[in-house]
Amino acid sequence: MNAGLKPGQEHFRFFPLHKKDTNKTIHTVDTILKIAVIGLGRIGQIHLAALKTFKNIKITAVSDISPELAKWTAAEYQIPHFYTNYQDIFQQKDIDAVWICSPTSYHLAQVKEALDSNKYIFCEKPLDKDSNNIQSLIDIYPDLNHRLMVGFNRRFDPDFAAVKASLKKIGKPTIIKITSRDPFPPTAEYTRASGGIYNDMSIHDLDMARFISESEAEQVIAVGSKNYTDDTDTTLITIKFKNGIICNIDNSRKASYGYDQRLEILGDKGMISVENKKINHLTFYSENSLESSVLEPFFLERYKDSYIEEIKAFITSIQEKKEFPSTGEDALKASILADACEKSLEQKKIIFL
Amino acid sequence: MNAGLKPGQEHFRFFPLHKKDTNKTIHTVDTILKIAVIGLGRIGQIHLAALKTFKNIKITAVSDISPELAKWTAAEYQIPHFYTNYQDIFQQKDIDAVWICSPTSYHLAQVKEALDSNKYIFCEKPLDKDSNNIQSLIDIYPDLNHRLMVGFNRRFDPDFAAVKASLKKIGKPTIIKITSRDPFPPTAEYTRASGGIYNDMSIHDLDMARFISESEAEQVIAVGSKNYTDDTDTTLITIKFKNGIICNIDNSRKASYGYDQRLEILGDKGMISVENKKINHLTFYSENSLESSVLEPFFLERYKDSYIEEIKAFITSIQEKKEFPSTGEDALKASILADACEKSLEQKKIIFL
Amino acid sequence: MNAGLKPGQEHFRFFPLHKKDTNKTIHTVDTILKIAVIGLGRIGQIHLAALKTFKNIKITAVSDISPELAKWTAAEYQIPHFYTNYQDIFQQKDIDAVWICSPTSYHLAQVKEALDSNKYIFCEKPLDKDSNNIQSLIDIYPDLNHRLMVGFNRRFDPDFAAVKASLKKIGKPTIIKITSRDPFPPTAEYTRASGGIYNDMSIHDLDMARFISESEAEQVIAVGSKNYTDDTDTTLITIKFKNGIICNIDNSRKASYGYDQRLEILGDKGMISVENKKINHLTFYSENSLESSVLEPFFLERYKDSYIEEIKAFITSIQEKKEFPSTGEDALKASILADACEKSLEQKKIIFL
Amino acid sequence: MNAGLKPGQEHFRFFPLHKKDTNKTIHTVDTILKIAVIGLGRIGQIHLAALKTFKNIKITAVSDISPELAKWTAAEYQIPHFYTNYQDIFQQKDIDAVWICSPTSYHLAQVKEALDSNKYIFCEKPLDKDSNNIQSLIDIYPDLNHRLMVGFNRRFDPDFAAVKASLKKIGKPTIIKITSRDPFPPTAEYTRASGGIYNDMSIHDLDMARFISESEAEQVIAVGSKNYTDDTDTTLITIKFKNGIICNIDNSRKASYGYDQRLEILGDKGMISVENKKINHLTFYSENSLESSVLEPFFLERYKDSYIEEIKAFITSIQEKKEFPSTGEDALKASILADACEKSLEQKKIIFL
């Protein structure tokens, strides 16, 4: 269908790049933003690749404790400055915002320095392992929700965002069910350092439960088992929210068939569900079974779009001078829930909040 | 799962950018290629956006008969040179390859000039409306298959490519069925200029039928009807291939539920099918029905990945000095089939090839 | 949910057998009908089992040329009379209706004798191999449509009947696609005796095409191949109907994954499709694929309900003194289409009707 | 495919009624069994209709406290004897087995009388509201498992039975999830009499959890809410089994989209799930959504086959002189779990068993 029209006509009819961002490969935002990325490990690279698709975002600097990684990344993405000391970034007056993608133990200190350097901040979750420290941060910076966005990226996944937008279709919600299972268990080393399944893995689902229920937890119960590691790697969490919604989360460190990410909400007028994404759309019909592809392998593929949408939401909030859509307060609440799960598992009782 | 590891370790463990292109947002190829794009209408913009995600491709120049469009595009993508006369591009010695995205009537002349300027060429389909002209081109340039790739992008769609790769699972193929329906009929002006449904729309499916059957047509029959325009807009094509496979293609200029793109192949040991992609993965369970989302709206979304894979295939063929995977010869064969369909419809008889 | 209510209350609240036939296991009709079944082979047994679930139908006699089979069947179903000569049935004055389930070559003679004995008749398709003979029958008995129902059972399948009832949802139909594939090829002996794929197998689909299109064919084209037998066992049929609808039927004598029965109708306002039934509703998620069950094995299972609904339609027509919903005329039209397919295949040309 | 073969041949080739029960409409068992049904309310009628499809089962007598209902039922099914006093049934020496379908409060007394009259017994669940009474019954009759089968019909549903049979495919099970939601809430009167959601509704799922886990519960937690009635009508149950499996059950008295019945089991080598059955297999593709049919309306339709299979299992156990597949012991265990749920909800704590 590309023949026979003058290019200009065709262009303006079908592909209105000037007006609307219909091109899914390269993204446009109105504001030109100068940014820096701190921490260039896996999640840092994910954010860099996503940021690079925005034409009006200029990545001015990166930093990592590994000089090779910092240098290689700068070259790979044609970024003018690279550092091993992240504090060099805060010296640069012309940087508007920083992406904090370092290990969790650095988050809080870096966030504070960034706030004091007057940068907008995107910080990966968890903000800190200790919810008391998050509480302190909130206490010190009263305008924090306008300055710091925390990376609960699943809120920005197109599927989950569409659920949130259409919740009223099911009337009054009564049951929320969230499934979140990783494809394979992490290394023993990772597990030890991770802070446990609730703070490392369930925290995303606890945030999703708050996001969908639009309420706060009243009762939390967790049961679990150890199947792949010497730490709890399989768990069922039950939450009763203040508005009466009851919620079940199931997490497993292993789902051999891929990254299992589901959500369903029952209401008095119906149900909405989000089903898994498969790798492809083939079905093989054999003598014994109908075979289709396994699920997307892991979060990098499953939540690829969420990283793009998260950046858009970050920029929109700045432009419109409104609160970020996932804040330090959200980080605190999720952290408190994760701690309650841990306590429930250990003490074998219902935790009342 | 991003806490607790040193960034370097994490990076090399999970995100081996150096070795393999697992990052789906930004693409890497080994060769640095300098290219130019001719024709900046809808399809030209699609290719530009796809080309821009390749780090080692340098887009050196663009041209379009509209000076505004050429200038705007160059600015948008930071491309050094822009022209209104495409021949200026062939003067640039340092350009390795050109992307011909102009209207069909310009294709053949531009391809010849590009060949004579010693550029590699990617040309959008159809190569020409007249299959005799394509035949002449093939006769003149004996090494054409190493120099010219024609844009049958669906061959590179991950789903269809996966079918091709797994055909042996179903044994000997006996029936191929292809569905291809546009979401809405084009304007009367477009229809008139398009050369008719077979050369404009079915040609993709005729190429797919050859690609999957790995054979040439022996008999072609087309029946059709006019429902939305004063030209045939709904058609059933039947092909009998030399290897015995029988094939049905159904095309419609209108499918109100989205861009319907399906394929199935029956063999003596099973069946493989490619199902449609939906816009999202939600299901709404109401009192009266279970509702899920409609299909991807059109080719831009449905075949987004195919444009990326097509570029990879173009570059790989150059690197490995092998024939392009979709050639002038393929363009000729598809064009002959489209002409046979038209003849069958008009003359109400089976066309024997 | 069965505790605590008095049985009577509960019964009338939930299980209104008196008023509506909500019980799917045992069926009620208002008329008491005395019937006989002629021919106790496979299809005869299917009808017997279905008839036996109707409480108000009394099966008074059966006949088969095999005395053992006749005797065994009578004992199995507690039927008072059994014969080897079917004509004994027509002597019984108190029999209201006969089910003719004998081999095709007996159909026409038995139908005539039944008509002359003043019985209502249900006759299995095809009515006769020669469409001229069917035409003669129609000419002789002008009220035939009120006396003879022909067993195009798929019209009564709940899925296909639901499609028929909701056709207006898709606006003006433009394309009909029918898939009908048997699970395994028949024996050479069966194939020889069957009258060929069009009269034996496609005839159901040709009737379905007429049923859905509500029009008569104008052009018929068939192409085919021989993969499993020395007769055509794989075919694509294309029909252009007088109302402009174009239709594709694909048939294969072998689909290793089960009995493949699909229908889809595209209209200017949408599409309706009937998907296959699987044996069960399990999915197994393994490391390599998601596996679900194959399709229902064959027509006995897939169309089980259609035999029940067919009987209901037979009785309703008698009660309401209206034409049967599938008549001798339908048998004739389907037979003419099957002959046209055969002629198209042999002569390699489009057949105009 | 019924033409051209002699009926006898055809019959023995395709329809081996003598050897195997491939006919799904009418069922054959080897033993001739004389039975009676006590209680002719909704569930009694369901069992009667299922029993009636077995050729070798003779229903000799029925009883109900309503003389009209007893009389009507006897006439409807041509049953020789009907009573208003169930004890008349136990006087009949030639009755082999009784089906107890009366309200729960009668079950235990009738079971005891039937045992003392030396009948085999099929009794609907729950056996009694008080688990102590069930324990007493078990204590008194040591051979009870060979004499009494309790109607946990879902164990015999072909889908759930297939899951049970293929559990080893997923390795070691780690998580079981059961969803069971009724289409609409019962009347206030029913709710009051039902004994609460756990004993009335969850008891099926508690039995399923035991059936699949092949273990006994160690911890039970229930949370719930009241949305439609003044009793708990929505609940999440969490069970930790002795073998380490963790299990979640979600129940709701209302699912506006139909009778929602799902099961999934995660193991270290994969997952098995049972999905819902829809009313039909149609999809309507409109401009705004893809619509398919809602779920089977209620248990009568969804579990229709289970009642047939349950009867087969009852008979097979008698023939093979083995324990019934769902026993008084199973009834006791499920009842204890239901009580634990109730206690957990009331006392807001984890119940340890």
What does this protein structure show overall?
Four copies of one chain form a homotetramer. Chain A is of the alpha/beta class and 353 residues long. The first copy, chain A, has helices spanning 7-14, 42-52, 67-76, 87-91, 104-116, 131-140, 158-165, 188-194, 197-213, 299-302, 304-319, 328-347, and strands spanning 33-38, 57-63, 81-83, 97-100, 120-123, 148-150, 173-181, 217-225, 234-241, 246-252, 260-267, 270-274, 282-285, 290-292, 351-352. In chain A, the strands form three sheets. Chain A has a seven-stranded mixed beta sheet with strand order 12-11-7-10-9-8-15. Chain A has a six-stranded parallel beta sheet with strand order 3-2-1-4-5-6, sandwiched between helices. In chain A, β5, α6 (131-140) and β6 (148-150) form a beta-alpha-beta unit. The radius of gyration of chain A is 22 Å and the shape is globular. The termini of chain A are far apart. The interface between A and C is medium-sized, with 15 and 15 residues. Chains A, B, C, D: This is Inositol 2-dehydrogenase. Chains A, B, C, D: Its EC number is 1.1.1.18.
- Seen as an oligomer or otherwise, the chain set is homotetramer
Strand count of chain A:
15
Helix and strand run of chain A? HEHEHEHEHEHEHEHHEEEEEEEHHHE
CATH architecture of the largest domain in chain A: 2-Layer Sandwich
**Spatial order of the strands forming the largest sheet of chain A:** 12-11-7-10-9-8-15
Q: pLDDT average of chain A, as an integer?
A: 90
Q: Compute the number of structural domains of chain A.
A: 2
Q: Which protein chains are joined by the largest interface, and how many residues does each one contribute? A: A-B, 86 and 86 residues
Annotated CATH homologous superfamily of the largest domain in chain A: Dihydrodipicolinate Reductase, domain 2
Q: What are the low-pLDDT stretches of chain A, counting only 5+ consecutive residues below 50?
A: 1-24
* CATH C-level class of the largest domain in chain A: Alpha Beta
Provide the β-strand percentage band of chain A.
15-25%
Q: How many strands, what sense, and barrel or not for the largest sheet of chain A? A: 7 strands, mixed
The computed structural class of chain A is alpha/beta
Give the overall form of chain A.
Answer: globular
